[in-house]
Design a protein that fits this description.
With about 160 residues, this protein is α+β, with helices and mostly antiparallel strands. The protein folds into two domains: about 10-40; about 50-164, Immunoglobulin-like, CATH 2.60.40.1930. It has three helices and nine strands; from the N terminus they run H-H-H-E-E-E-E-E-E-E-E-E. It has helices at about 10-35, 50-55, 55-70, and strands spanning about 70-75, 75-80, 80-90, 100-110, 110-120, 120-125, 125-135, 140-150, 150-164. The strands form two sheets. It has a five-stranded mixed β-sheet with strand order 2-9-8-4-5. Strands 1-3-7-6 form a four-stranded antiparallel β-sheet. A hairpin with a 2-residue loop joins strand 6 (about 120-125) and strand 7. The longest helix is centred in the first third of the chain and has 25 residues, at about 10-35.
Length: about 160
C-alpha cells in the first residue's frame, strides 16, 4: 500500500485569525478614542447646541457686523511670559468705536485646557487693550473675539504664535 500525503487546509485558521485581528484593532481604536476626547470648538464662545440652534441668526448678525465695522489686531507674535496686545475697532469710515462690549478668549487650537477669557483692561480711541496675561507654552495660539455694538454682534479669530 502506498502512503498518501495528507493535505492540510489552512482556510479556517486564516478566517479565525482575521476575526481576532479585527477584534484587537477595534479595541485599539476605542482605547485611542477614549484617551483623546474631542475638544469643543470655542469660536462662538457658547455651547455648540446653542450655536447649532441659532446659526442662521448668528451668521446674519456677523454679516451685518462685517459690513459696518473693521477690526485690526496689534500683534501676531507673543513671547513666553507676560504679554498684552491691542484690538482696534473702527467703523468703515475710520471713526473709532469706544462703546463696544468686547470679550476675548486666548486659546490653543489643540486643547481647551489653556483657555483664558479676558475683558479689556483699557479702552481709548477705539483701542481695546488686553493684558497683562501669561503665555506658558510656545506654539500656535488663537485670539477669539466676540464683539457687541448695539444690535450688531461679530465673532473673529486671529492666529498668533508664541516663542521663547
Amino acid at each position: 500500500m502506498a502512503k498518501t500525503k495528507s493535505e492540510r487546509n489552512y482556510y479556517p485558521h486564516a478566517v479565525i485569525g482575521m476575526i481576532l485581528g479585527m477584534v484587537v484593532a477595534c479595541g485599539w481604536v476605542i482605547k485611542i478614542a477614549v484617551s483623546n476626547p474631542v475638544e469643543m470648538d470655542t469660536f462662538y464662545m457658547e455651547k455648540y447646541q446653542k450655536v447649532d440652534h441659532n446659526i442662521n441668526k448668528i451668521l446674519d448678525l456677523q454679516a451685518k457686523f462685517d459690513a459696518k465695522f473693521a477690526l485690526a489686531y496689534s500683534t501676531e507674535k507673543f513671547e513666553i511670559g507676560k504679554n498684552s496686545f491691542t484690538l482696534r475697532l473702527t467703523d468703515k469710515s475710520g471713526q473709532p468705536i469706544d462703546n463696544a462690549d468686547v470679550t476675548l478668549m486666548l486659546s490653543r487650537p489643540d486643547s481647551n485646557k489653556e483657555n483664558q477669557e479676558m475683558k479689556p483692561s483699557h479702552v481709548q480711541n477705539g483701542n481695546y487693550t488686553f493684558g497683562p496675561f501669561e503665555i506658558t507654552k510656545p506654539g500656535r495660539w488663537q485670539i477669539l473675539s466676540k464683539i457687541e455694538v448695539g444690535e450688531f454682534k461679530g465673532y473673529h479669530k486671529n492666529e498668533a504664535y508664541a516663542a521663547q
